[in-house]
Each structure stands twice: as C-alpha cells, then as structure tokens.
Amino acid sequence: MKFTLTEEHKLIQEAARNFAETELLPGIIERDDNQQFASDKVKVLGDLGFMGLMVDPKYGGAGMDTIAYVLAMEEISKIDASVSVTMSVNNSLVCWGLETYGNEEQKQKYLTPLAKGEKIGAFCLSEPEAGSDATSQKTTAEDKGDHYIINGTKNWITNGKSAGVYLVIAQTDAQKRHKGINAFIVESDSPGISLGPKENKLGIRSSETYSIMFADVKVPKENRIGEDGFGFKFAMKTLSGGRIGIAAKALGIASGAYELSVKYSKERKAFGAEIAKHQAIQFKLADMATQIEAARLMCFKAAWLKDQHQDYDQASSMAKLYSSEVAMATTVEAVQVHGGYGFVKDFHVERLMRDAKITQIYEGTSEIQKIVISRGVIKG
Ligand code: CAA
Questions:
Q1: Catalytic residue list
Q2: How many CB atoms lie within 10 A of CB 47?
Q3: Strand, helix or coil at 167?
Q4: 235 CA to middle of ligand 1, Å?
C-alpha cells in the first residue's frame, strides 16, 4: 500500500490547480450571478486535455488513470464546481461510456471530438417521472428496422444546450422492463429536438441544466450502444464510474471551503487574537481536515479499484455518499468560520455551500447510494 502520488499525478494536480486559479477564479462570482456558462473556459480545459483525461490517446484523450482524474476534479472543483460538472459528465459518463461499450466506428466518429474537447457530451437518463427510479423510463425508442424513432422528455440534463452529443437512454420494449431499454448516441442538432428553459438553480448556477424534448427524432441503428436491451446496464455501469467523479467534485468543494477557512482564520482578529487561536475555530478546522482526509482516501480507493479492473460499484457509492456529506458539512462550517463575511459573495464560501448541495442529489441521491451500498453488504 502506497500513499504517495507519482510525479505524473503531481503534474496533473498542479496543472489543474494553476488552471483553476488563473482561468476560473476571475469572474466566477459574476458567472454564478448571471448563470453564465463558461464555454470559453471549457474550451481551454479541452485544449489542455482535461475533457478526455482517461481516454486512450488514439482517440484523442490524455491516457491518464482514474487517480489523475480524481486529483484534477478536486482542484477544479475547489474553485469552480460549475465547470467541473461539465468536465465530470464529459469524462466519466460520456467518454468512458463510449470508450468502454461503443464500437470502433462510434469511437472514431463521436469519442475523438469529445475527448479532445471539440464537442461536449451530455448524459440523458433522468426524466420528469424517472429520477431515482431509473428503470421507469417513459421515453420510447421505437425500432423501425434500420433506425429508431425517439419520443419523450429528459430532465435535469447537464450541458443540455452546449452539448453536441447526447447519450440517450430510452425504452424500446416496455414488456421487457429494464431489459428492453437501449442507449443511443444522438446528435444534438437532429430534427425534432428542442430545449425547455434553462433551470434557475440554487447552486452550480453557471452550469447548464435543461429539459430536452424529443419529438420523432430519427436515430440510425448504428448509433445504438451495445446489444439490443443493454441500455440499462450501460447506464448503471457508467454511473458507477461517474459517481467517483462527483465524489471528487464534492471533495474539491469541501477542500476549497476548508482552505479558505484556514486562510481567513489566520487573518481575522477577534478578542485580541487571530480567530485561529481560539479553540472554537480550531475544533471546526480539525473536524474539516479529518473528514476531508477520509473523503479523499475513499475517492482514491474507488479510483484505484477501477484502475485495477476490480469491482468498484460499492466503493464509488461509498465515496460519493461520504464526500457529498462532507462537502455539505464543511461548507456550512466554512460560512460559520467567516461569520458575516461568509454570508456575502466576495468570500466565495456561500457559493461553495450552495454548490455542495447538488452533490448529494445528482448521479444518484445519497439514499440511492445507500441502496447500492447495502445491497453489496448483504450480498457479501
Ligand atoms: N452494473 C451492472 N448492472 C447493474 C448495476 C451495475 N452497477 N446496477 C444494477 N444493474 C442491473 C441489475 O443487475 C439488473 O439487471 P438483471 O435483472 O439483468 O440482473 C438491472 O440493472 C436492474 O437493477 P435493479 O433490479 O437493482 O433495479 P432497481 O430499480 O431496484 O434499482 C437503482 C436500481 C440502483 C436504484 C438505479 O435505478 C439507480 O442507480 N438509480 C439512480 C439513477 C441515477 O443515478 N441517476 C443519475 C442521473 S445522471 C446525472 O445525474 C448526470 C448529470 O447530469 C450530473
């Protein structure tokens, strides 16, 4: 067991930190206020290789492992959790899903531009009546021989407007329930696709979240991923890895708030001393540091299992469950450490507190993670 990072890991971590501090920090409060998607920043992220971090270089990726991905997600999320969700969905849901289960033609045509950051991907599973209960898909994909016709509505879709490629999960044969579900690669400019209004959110306000309507959208049969009926397993396997990305994102939100709290507590004076000298603040910092360290180790463990091709379903759910709770608890305490200043936007911790909440909800709520974990526990 080794607790040290390789030189390559340290370089990725440093590159992500530099990018976040120099490119993402300027203008972040305004982007959050105006719900402005940072398309120019995402483009640079792609040029630097962060949009296809784990993808094989032969498909335009950076060829890194999942540990590198966790490190990069933590650093980007410390500053900008809106940009990091775009990065996370593109890397671990869309690129990983295509690279692992797509055929060669699909990879050449769709994975390469996504891994290079020339296109952005979105993962379309959730529906108005199918969030946690993901097998209850109402969107249909009717088999018409050489093509499918997709009808239905997808909800809460990250990158909904800017994505060039959607991975869409839809029901082909309702009699077969989840075994009749398929996953499709759908080009976002296909006729019949329209968007609802942009969601006005509590947190990650500069990320794009849209409903997407599909009305008689024609998708060629060669755009189905895997065998007929593989779509639900595709979604579940892909989400298992996605949850490592969201866990790392939650870790970054927590560690960002913690670092700001340490800095502030050494500068701010009260009762004749820096507040870091008061035990009331010291104990908060100690709790934050301990929980963040545990969350980080859980993220690394899940990433390591994935890199070793071992079962990581339970570990990724544990990492997401714990890290998202640490993100929420840490950011609430970070606002408290900052006092009145924490309640205003200039000090960043109120934004991190708002951003933390979604990590307990998307890519499977905390309650869904407990279902996955407890099933693993009982199965043994
Ligand atoms: N790997 C492979 N197969 C899996 C699997 C996994 N990790 N998990 C489940 N399956 C398979 C099961 O084996 C079963 O197949 P068989 O019948 O052939 O054995 C099938 O899937 C159905 O599974 P269950 O019987 O367990 O289904 P369920 O309805 O009881 O529960 C669930 C499944 C775990 C609750 C699932 O519905 C779930 O994960 N829900 C949460 C959905 C979610 O995470 N949504 C996130 C939206 S995407 C998003 O947020 C992206 C974004 O934009 C940020």
A1: 363
A2: 12
A3: strand
A4: 7
Provide the terminal-to-terminal Cα distance of the chain, rounded to the nearest Å.
24
Give the position, in ligand 1's atom list, of the atom nearest the Cα of 242.
51
Q: Ligand 1 centre and the CA of 135: distance in Å?
A: 7
- C-alpha 287/C-alpha 124 separation (Å) is 37
DSSP H/E element including 214 = strand 209-220
* Coil/strand/helix, residue 239: helix
Strand ranges (E), 51-164: 121-124, 140-143, 147-158
* pLDDT tens, N- to C-terminus, the chain (380 residues): 889 999 999 999 999 999 999 999 999 999 999 999 999 999 999 999 999 999 999 999 999 999 999 999 999 999 999 999 999 999 999 999 999 999 999 999 999 999 999 999 999 999 999 999 999 999 999 999 999 999 999 999 999 999 999 999 999 999 999 999 999 999 999 999 999 999 999 999 999 999 999 999 999 999 999 999 999 999 999 999 999 999 999 999 999 999 999 999 999 999 999 999 999 999 999 999 999 999 999 999 999 999 999 999 999 999 999 999 999 999 999 999 999 999 999 999 999 999 999 999 999 999 999 999 999 999 97
Residue 371 beta carbon below 6 angstroms from any ligand 1 atom? yes
Query: From the CB of 362, is ligand 1 less than 6 Å away?
Result: yes
**368 touches ligand 1 (CB under 6 Å):** yes
Ligand 1: does its nearest atom lie under 6 Å from the Cβ of 125? yes
